[in-house]
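Internal ticket #5521
Category: modeling
Description: The requester needs a full-assembly model to guide mutagenesis choices. All entity lines are attached below as received. Residue total reported by intake: 581.
Assigned to: D.W.
Attached entities:
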Amino acid sequence: MASFDVMPDVQLYQPAELEDALNLADQLGDKGWILGGGQDTYGWLKDRAKHPQAMIDLTGIEALRGVRETSDGIEIGATTTLREVIRDERIKRDYSLLISAADVVASPQIRNVGTLGGNLTQDTRCWYYRRGLDCYRAGGNICYANSTESMNREHCVFGASRCVAVSPSDTAIALTALDAKMVIQSMDGQRVVTADDFFVGPDTHITSMTSLGRREILTAIRIPSKWAGKKFYFEKVADRNVWDFALVSIAAAMSIDGDAIADSRFVLGGVACTPHRLRNVERAARGKSLSEESAAALASLASEGAQPLKYNHYKLPLMENLVRRATRA
Amino acid sequence: MDIATYKHDVWGTEVLRGVSWDLLWLVIVAAFFAIVLHGIYEARQERGAPPSSEGERVQRHQKIDRIFHWIMAFSMFALLITGILPILGVNFAWLSLHWMAGLLLTAIVLAHILRSIFVKDLSSVAISAADIREGLDDSKKPGKYSVAQKGLHAVVALVTLVVIITGLVMFAMIDTPWWDRTNSLSESTLGWTFFLHGLSTLALVGLISLHVYFALRPEKLFYLRSMFGGWISKDELSANHDPERWAPDETS
C-alpha cells in the first residue's frame, strides 16, 4: 500500500457553531469525517486507507472547548486539547487520574494538538487494519491478526469476537474508571451515555469502536463528583516511554474508608477492544486493606477469563502485576 | 445495484467478499409486490362459502412434525433477526445468538431429513408429473400437498441446505467453546462461502415472507390451524384435497 506525504483531495468544512457542524454531519453521513486534532485522521488519509469526501473540523467551535463546573462534577468540551486538560487546576485537584492518563498520551507535540474527544474516539492501531487490509473491522470477512502466522503481540486477550484489536486510548480507561458520561449530539437531539456503553466491542459493532453514529458528534465528557479527590493509580506499560501505545495500562480509582477499600474501579487498557473493567477485582477489593497481602490476592484475579493469542501471553502477568501495584499501600 | 462485493486479498488480488446487501431491499420490495399482486388477484376471485371446520376431523400433521416445524420456524426467525438487524445498523452482540440458532436449525433439519427418509413417506413431498398437471387444471384437487406447497418446500429445502452448509463452514472460522478458529480457508473460498450464505439468506427472506403470507391467507388458515392442532375437518379435506390421493386417519 502506498503512503503519501501529502493529503488527498478532501473538502474541508470549518464550522464555528455546533449547529452548523451537526447539520454538516447529518448531510454528509458516511461521506463525512469528524476532525478534532487530526492525530488519528491524518495517518488514515495519508495512507489512503480511508476515503472521506469531506472533513468537518470541530476545533473552531468555541462551545466544544474548555472545562466547566457542573452541579455534579465537571464537563470537558470534546475539543479541549490534552495539554489543556493536563493544565487544568480543577482536574488536577479532583481528577488527577485523568491528568496521569493524558500526560502519557503519545508525545508533547501530539498532546498540544490532540483533543480529548479525539483520543477517546480514535481507531484501533491493529497494523493489519491500519495497513488497509479488508479485515472484519474494515467490513471484510477475515481477521489477519489471528492466525498461526499472525503477529499479534499487541492484540487483545479479552472480548475477541472475530476481530482481536485493542483500544489504543489512554484517557478512555481513566474516564471509565471515573464513571464519566459522554455527551453526544446530532440533529435528533442529545443523548448521554456512560463510558461503559460508549465503547463497544466487536461482538456488538465490528467496524466501530464506539457507539457514535455517523451523524453524531461527541461534544463533551462529564465526570461526576463521585470519585473527586479519591485515591487514584495509573500506569502505562509500553515499549517506549513516549510516543507509543500501551501494551497494557491500568487506571484505578479507590474510595478508602479507614484503611479499607469501600468502592473501586479497576480498568485495563491494551487488553480488549474497549476499556476492560475488572469487575471481579472490584468486587473482591471491597473491604480489603491496601496491603501486599490483599494486593497479591487481587492481582491473581486480574487475568481471569483471559484468552491470549499466539504472541501475547505476556499480557497476563503484566495485568496481574499492574493490579498488584495499584493496590499496594 | 451490485450482486456481490469484492475486496483485495492479502496478496492484492481481487476476490469475492460476499453478497451485496443492497439486494435485501430489492428482495423486500419484490416480496411485497408479489404479495400485493396475489392479494388483489385473490380478492377478485369468486368463492363459495368456506368449508366448515366443525364435524369429524382427520389428522394432517403428527405432533412430532408440528414440533419440528415450530422449532425450525423459531430458529429461522432467530437467524434472520440476528443476521440481518446488524446489517441494517441495529448493533448488538449477535454472533453467539446467531450460531446457537444455526446449530439448532442444523440439528432439527437433520432430524427432519432422517425422519422423512426412514419414517415418513418422502414421496408425499416429491413433485411428480401428476402434480404439475394438477397445478394446471383447476378441476383437479391435490393429495396431501399442492404442487405450490411442494414447490415452495423444495426450494426452501435447497436454500436452507445451502445456508446451513455455508454457515457451518463459517462457524469453523470463528472461535467457539469447542475450538479456536483456524483461518484455514483461502480468502477466495471464504468469499464464496460468505456470498452463498448471504445469497441464500436473501432468498429465505423472500421465501419466508411468501410462506407467512400464504399461511395467513383467509382460505388457507385451516392449514395454519393444523400446524398448531394437527387436524383439519373432513369438510375442509373434501373441499381442498382429493381423497383418492390422500386418505388421512381420522382423529378426535
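Resolution: model delivered.
Comment from assignee: DSSP finds eight helices and five strands in chain B.
Ticket closed.
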